[in-house]
Amino acid sequence: MIFKESNNVPYFYKNQAYQRSDTSSIPADITQVRRWIMEGSNIEFDRQIIEENDFAFAGLEDELVNEVGIKKLNEDTLRTMGLMIGEKYTNAGKLFADENNMSFGIDAVRFGEDISQFLKRKTLVNISILEQFHKMISFFDEFYYDYEEIVGTRRVKRIMIPRKAFREALANAIVHKDYLIRANIRVELWNDYVEIVSPGGLPNGITEEEFQGGKVSILRNEVVASVFQRSRIFMVIITPKI
């Protein structure tokens, strides 16, 4: 079965969605179908309105009181930040809520000498992505620290893993995650390096060559990035989408 190229995606045949792959058509999974629907509506995931309405934002309020100086978080502030539209919450609002039913988040493991040695594991789900960020920084701090080493006749300061680098990489993983993919960000902590993997490919509008060349940066979740910027966690640099 072959479908001709068209802008009207997805292609359906006998209640199954298909997508083009080279010269043939293959079944599309539910994540790809959701992505097509989102692209067709021209509304990014974090801006989409949801029907759930029972959320609390104590953690976000504390963050903004401390970092921005607001006196109290109210619905007008939530609307300004894009966490509400009218009387309804957005997906971004759900991500920043103290508790939510998002079954994915961050899964971290501190390994020993090899992958068979699990020294400690931490999984963070169903809580605000801000809280996930802060708890993962605390988890990192359990294992890495600065120390001094005697080299010849001098004391030399050593850094096991730069905390600022980990903080930046973790913030980027959360901000740029493809939240249509129901999978955890994976953090692996080793003696001499850290590996962070955020599920998903490149955002639409950027090629692999442009990404590797560092010439183009496109935000996948602009509302999430904006809130992290207000919290002084993430610096937003937006390249207009073409």
Structural commentary:
The longest helix is centred in the middle third of the chain and has 13 residues, at 129-141. The model is unreliable at 1-7 and 238-242 (pLDDT under 50). The protein has helices spanning 30-41, 58-67, 75-81, 91-96, 129-141, 163-175, 208-213, 222-230, and strands spanning 11-13, 16-21, 24-27, 84-85, 88-89, 106-111, 118-124, 146-151, 154-159, 185-189, 194-197. Helix 5 (129-141) runs antiparallel to helix 6. It folds into 3 domains: 11-42, no CATH class; 47-96, no CATH class; 106-201, no CATH class. The strands form 4 sheets. A 4-stranded mixed β-sheet has the order 7-6-10-11, with helices on one face. The chain is globular and about 65 Å long. It is of the alpha+beta class and 242 residues long. It has 8 helices and 11 strands. 31% of the residues lie in helices and 21% in strands.
Largest sheet: 4 strands, mixed
Tally of DSSP β-strands = 11
What's the gyration radius in Å?
21 Å
Shape: globular
Number of individual domains: 3
Low-confidence stretches: 1-7, 238-242
Q: How much helix, percentage-wise, in residues?
A: 25-40%
Strand order of the largest sheet: 7-6-10-11
The H-and-E topology, N to C, reads as: EEEHHHEEHEEHEEHEEHH
Structural class: alpha+beta
Mean pLDDT: 82
Head-to-tail CA distance between termini: 33 Å
Could you tell me the strand content as a percent range?
15-25%
How many alpha or pi helices? 8
